[in-house]
Please model this.
Amino acid sequence: QVDVVESGGGSVQSGGTLKLSCRVTGLADSRICVGWVRQSPGKEREVVAVIDSDDWTDYADSVKTRFTISQNDARNTIDLQMNSLQSEDTAMYLCAVGKLGGLLGCGYYFRFPKAFDYWGQGTEVTVSS
Model:
């Protein structure tokens, strides 16, 4: 059984920082793509950052200079460091995992988040101005 569990959400003031963590267990595949995806009421899910097993990363333009995605050596904990938070960053943040293979790279999941294979329940981030 694959489990994806997020932690670290909370409420901060504009300009503040938060660090989210995603713990992935039960996955036999060593080559995966992990993404942080956010969902706001009335908006479509937006991929904010992805990282693959080779530490390749990509970011949404809206967060590129403020957020950093990273993972531990065991590749089972993926963090999202969020700096200079703005009210527009308020959302439910979900961690998602996709299997890699063949021509299927992390960039595919970045463009098509519905393709992720496993999802966590999410952690809420609220930024007040």
User: Anything to note?
Assistant: The first strand starts at residue 3 and ends at 7. The chain has a mean pLDDT of 95.
